What does this fold into?
Amino acid sequence: VLVLTRRANQSIVVGNDVVVTVLEVRGDQVRIGIKAPRHVTVHREEVFAEIQKANREAVLSAGFDAELTLPVPKPAATPQD
Amino acid sequence: VNDVIIRSDRFGEIEIEPDRLIEFPDGILGFPESRRFAMLDANDSGLYFWLQCVEDPALAFLSVIPWEFFPDYAVDLSDEIERSLAVAAESDVLVLSLVTVQADTRELTANLLGPLVINVVAKRGCQLVLADSGFSVRAPLAVA
It folds into this structure.
């Protein structure tokens, strides 16, 4: 892990084309701006972690049952003609 | 070309033509090494599919086509995603939600926050993260 100190309005360049800028520091909150090419996905780590966890749960839980009862959708209201 | 043989924990030995396998170049979140999956009908509803990993015989995801269960659900594909999946027509795209059996209630839920998007023609897929969408990772599959 690279640790470095930045002040507001200072940036870090990651690779050739990702720029992370500290916009504002207020108490224990930091506002950050990220400039990255469109193909680079940027997400809060919590969202990633939540989906990783859900994926693992999905694998484990589906392993419990040899025969799962799979719900069918409620029939859609048929349009009147 | 030889068929691929998967010795699946759940399904036993599966023999499948390599060009029917679906590749996830970036893996599935939490399973970065698992790239190729066989898509198997889970029943005859046409709504549920197992995704059996080729590289890991113990890894199989149950998935569901979400639209009929969640009429208000929407997945917006960016140009970047369409390009990376080589989407040529809307009909190429299949959206699947991973299904979890809740340990306490035995209820089945679908992950709407992190859908799988698959180009069924190019046999390429990825898992999207619909951050800030408000969609649930555990949306109950309502029983009719």
Observations:
- The radius of gyration of chain B is 15 Å.
- Residues 79-84 of chain B form the longest helix (6 residues).
